[in-house]
TrEMBL record:
PANTHER family reported in the protein's UniProt record: CARBOHYDRATE TRANSPORT ATP-BINDING PROTEIN MG119-RELATED, D-ALLOSE IMPORT ATP-BINDING PROTEIN ALSA-RELATED
CDD domains for the chain: ABC_Carb_Monos_I, ABC_Carb_Monos_II
GO molecular function, one term: ATP binding
Domain ABC transporter per the UniProt entry, residue ranges: 4-240, 239-495
Alphabetized Pfam families for the sequence: ABC_tran
Keyword Nucleotide-binding: yes
Keywords: ATP-binding, Cell membrane, Membrane, Nucleotide-binding, Repeat, Sugar transport, Translocase, Transport
Organism, as annotated: Ideonella azotifigens
Protein name per the record: Sugar ABC transporter ATP-binding protein
SMART domains in the cross-refs: AAA
Amino acid sequence: MLALSFQDVVKAFGPVQVLHGVSFSLDAGRIYGLLGENGAGKSTLMKIASGYEAATSGQLCLDGQPVRFANSRDAEAAGIVLIHQEFNLAEDLTIAQNIFLGHEKKKRGGWLDDAAMRREAAAVLQRVGLDRDPDTRLRQLIVAEKQLVEIAKALARNARLLIMDEPTATLTPGETERLFALMAQLKAGGTTILYISHKLDEVERITDEVVVMRDGRFITRAATRSLSRAQMANLMVGRELSDLFPAKQLPPTDAPVRLRVQDLSVPGWAEQASFEVRAGEILGFAGLVGAGRTELFEGLLGLRSSSAGRVEIDGQAVALRSPREAADLGLTYLSEDRKGKGLHVAMGLTENLTLMNLRQYAKPWLRKDQERQALGDAVREFGIRTGSLSLRASSLSGGNQQKLALAKVLQPGPKVVVLDEPTRGVDVGAKRDLYVLIHRLAAQGCGVIVISSELIELIGLCHRVAVMRAGRLTTTLQADRLSEEALIAHATGTH
Ligand SMILES: Nc1ncnc2c1ncn2[C@@H]1O[C@H](COP(=O)(O)OP(=O)(O)OP(=O)(O)O)[C@@H](O)[C@H]1O
Ligand SMILES: [Mg+2]
């Protein structure tokens, strides 16, 4: 059992102060939800608690004793393990190697005990419900599977305080249930859990208490039961929130078709999918993880091998061989995997934003001033919270990285945008801002495609929703027929 307290914790990155003296304490053996808007400082505070970052000033106490961690191994030795929001896994290593990275098991004589590591890895994989050979390399896994490897890794370290930074952002409902069961089991065994999430329904279900942060400050700690979801949201943003979804504006029935896809097949993932989206229309794609939604669009964009009867943008037949080529033809794509494919996290904010559209800024040479102005505009329009414009993308908070990725695909003024999980990890206030932006984009005549695992989002946002099941487009539901029950029934084939 482990009780933790923060005393006047301050963190500054250079001139930018992000934590302004945070003090609160946690009791052992409970599950806490940590809430706050994007950029509130949740991840930063938890990185300090787990030895990944050093506080600028202030104190951390474990069971009443002041502690100072030089690195994450120190913290792990004290029983504190962080599961990162942005995965911290080595793509070229196997699952077993990742699980034991830095904690390798050795035989007498100092040789690595691969057999023991593989065996224990298999055991923790079973606990998290990931049915994969421990020798599989990370790069072969899909995002949700990588998340489960992160959780397995934490279990193998026998955490007494387990910090989970948005662990369910990429999980299916079934995997989420399994994770919750696991959390309840860990709690019963005396583990304290800190759970960061923007999904308030989950926070309501799984946590005993919530801690709310706002703008780098501690706001309150309260029993989860004592707060409604709306109250939680209001505490996070410090004001009353209006309706999450803006009113839908139906496009005129004679609006031109922006994108038409006929008989698109992606071997192993999708078969003969045909669909179209008109100017002003927001078309959703629903389906279970593995139904082939992401893969279908990766095929369309030339990221996977695929074949199509015909693809048209504004009535012109096109062949899209890469996202770059697609962007030149007016179709831009936001990947669900923002770290892997969406952003170049090691590059600056400006470079990220203008990369898609480099040619516009390179007439005849790169216009630095225009680039900076575009970044300033995007930061304002998308409400990206950043202390400075000259940061690297990796130093933005998770939700703010997502907003930057979105700004990046909307920047060139596309005819069609495909957004894969656009609001993943985005706080409730910012979600609404993104929905307003998506509506505005449609109103300007863009055809918008939104792939989402949040049914409420598809229902609130879209004019029509196409449902995929096992690689096939099974149906398309009009706005007036959209309900969670209907979407689930079509996605699982039980209608
Ligand atoms: N290395 C860094 N350099 C500069 N600023 C940073 C760095 N790391 C984080 N920040 C800033 O600190 C602030 C808090 O970020 P943090 O990641 O803690 O937010 P968060 O509450 O986890 O948000 P989210 O819900 O989006 O994940 C952000 O404004 C972020 O840009
Ligand atoms: Mg975060």
